[in-house]
Specification:
The complex is a heterodimer of chains A (351) and B (440).
Chain A: H1 2-22, H2 35-41, E1 48-52, H3 54-57, H4 62-69, E2 73-77, H5 83-96, E3 101-105, H6 118-125, H7 132-141, H8 148-152, H9 155-158, H10 167-171, H11 209-224, E4 228-233, H12 243-255, E5 259-262, H13 287-304, H14 314-341
Parallel strand pairs in A: 1-2, 1-3, 3-4, 4-5
Helix pairs in contact in A: 4-13, 5-7, 5-11
Chain B: H1 6-21, H2 27-42, H3 45-64, H4 68-89, H5 93-98, H6 108-123, H7 132-140, H8 144-147, H9 153-160, H10 168-201, H11 208-237, H12 255-261, H13 264-275, H14 286-301, H15 305-323, H16 332-344, H17 346-349, H18 353-357, H19 369-372, H20 375-396, H21 408-423
Helix pairs in contact in B: 1-2, 2-7, 3-4, 3-6, 3-7, 4-6, 6-7, 7-9, 10-11, 10-20, 10-21, 11-16, 13-14, 14-15
Chain lengths: 351, 440
Amino acid sequence: MKRFILYFILFIVLFLGLQRLVVPKYQEELVEGAMTREYYEDDKNHQILFLGDCEVYSNYSPITLFNEFGYTSYIRGNSQQLMSSSYHLLRETLRYETPNIVILSVNALRYGEEYEKESYHRLLLDGMKNSSIKYDLIKETKVEGETFLSYLFPIFRYHSRIFQLTSEDFKYYFQKKQITHNGYLMRVDTLPVTTIYRGTPLSNYEFPKENMEYLEKIRKLCQENDIELILIKTPSTYPYWYEEYDNQVKEYAYSNHLTYLNLYDKVEEMEIDYQLDTYDAGLHFNIKGAEKLTRYLGSYIQDHYLLEDMRRDEKTAKKYEEKTKYYEEMKEEQYLELEKYGKITMYGGKE
Amino acid sequence: MNLISFPFFLFLFLVFLSYYLIPIKNRWVILLLFSVLFYCFQSNILYLLGSSILTYLFSVWIEKGTSQKQNKQKLIVGIFIHLFLLFTLKYDLYRYITGANLLVPLGISYYTLSSLSYLIDVYQKKIKTNGFFRFFLCISFFPTLILGPINRYQKVEKTLFSTPTFQRQKIVDGFLRILYGIFKKLLIANPLFLLINYIVTENIGGVIPILGLLLYGIQIYADFSGGIDIVLGFSTMLQIDLEENFETPYFSKNLTQFWNRWHMSLSHWLKDYVYRPLGGNQKGKWARNILIVFLLSGLWHGVSWNFLLWGLLSGIFLILEKKCSYDPKKRIAILGNYCFVCLLWIFFMYPNLESILSIFQASKFTIPLFQIMSPMNYGILCLSILFLGFVDYQKFHQKKFSFLGRNRDYLLLIGFLLVIILFGNYGFSFVKTDFIYSRF
């Protein structure tokens, strides 16, 4: 029996050790998978919670929001984050904290089945803590071939990476660096807009029914927890945001007494320059654009909601001082990288 | 439920726990319940149940009969009913007549032969009827429903209904065998499938199909024997002795040896219930009997020209071998025999005769090896094949891995588990492939 226990422990150690080795680290090449995990490492006293896809994690800077308005915030956004995922991430967040405001990007309302991809589910779920909420999220979003077991033991999904290991896998085996700034993924590079897309007519403009159901679930959850829900659409030159889309959101917001901010109308007011403020020709904003957007949003919240200025809280101010330092360091590193290589290859980041 | 899937392993675990938690005399009841449950998950149990009730009623009827002539008539009717059901359900006779599709019941090829052997054995007074449920367990024993082996009441009743006292070593051996089966399927058969599938679907010509056939010989062996290892491994864990299906078949020096070691439960069945009753080795009859047996064997795999030709040619070559008294002593004959057997696998590798003939009109003669798999994957595949050969060699010479010392079992368990988990061809990024013999 003693020998059995010894060998069993040996197996478990080897199994977990190998699992850690083959699972993607999301530190250098594909950083978008680091976002969900980083939330757990932050203090849980956020006044504002952003939910949505890349339109939130690329376009709003919680550090700017704190430094200029005194609001603590976190972005729980992931690439192509579905409405169902936003709902479950909100449920999970509420286990840790209750923000005053939830700002939900409505971009994902247009996502149909073609957006349900295992690779995107992985980016969101790989860093998520095991819980009944994660189980629900997997159950509701998994596509053919995805299994619960492979989320519980990711080695069953990533075992073939054993032949594709890079220095990143060994460098970050024990410790990972911080990639985002309260969920914001910084980019300082610029790729100007050259083409203004006009939307081609669609056969059906109606949002998938399932997405609207999840929006309703999010609204109810916010209502139950006394949270203000703000719907937001961030400007982007593509994919095209049709008027028919906008009308559906407006109608929903109106009938449920919600605020809907369509920032397309505010581009001039925010002084957005599409030649300087975007890093991918208009889909996402770079740091300059993101800071402009954040300033507009901050002043909107200041004008319409009563939130405490947390800069007056010594502990929080000190924490954000550190965060700001790291934010500025990364900004500087990225500019240096840009100058040296002409593009961003690494995201900087604290070891 | 695939033999290599989490739900199946969970099911095995539950059976295993329940089996050892209840008193010995009732264990077979647990197996019966789980077998029924397993079948209900997979398929419509009514066919299996109906066919079993019929078999059992006929067996009792035959057993109670006093007239040999009448018993023979009953037996013929019983056999006819089974063959009718088999042809109707499996070989699309129903669709041919009515145009409508029927769902093929799981394991019909296997349980039909088990039922027939029961009926014939009762007729020949080799066994006595001993309760319907015992018989029902024998033919519906769940691990054997997907790939066999073909259960014969006479051979399994001893351990199926009265388990010997608990033996820890049997559980370890059984578990190791399951892992070895998974290893064969995931590290050899599945990667080879990618190569073979490319050759077949892209209609590659030249020498590639010949190389493909040599590899297909390994694929079908790793696939079928791997599945059987899982089945027999689990049975060993329950201390139930089932018939072996393979005995290092590719170490045979001629076809006679090969057919005595390949898919043994089917070969033995055909030998006992077809070949011998037809006259067996009697002068003037043996060649005809061999031909009938191989044609039936081909038909058992499916009603298609492919399998019919495979059976016919296998039979003819075996007759020629016996006529020439070909029984080489040199080891090199093993290689020759392997190549010959592989040539006959062409009827399994290609889906139909048209695709075989289209090889001669192929316009592509190369395959993008490294687009199909990475060099490292080929490395792992080669090592795995070498390991399979090494294990078979050890088995052929009746040796064990004694060099691993007293920690042999633990080291093998950990080694197999980690190798399978890391290098196995499974999961989201791999093509899901069923066992070849699960479609027969």
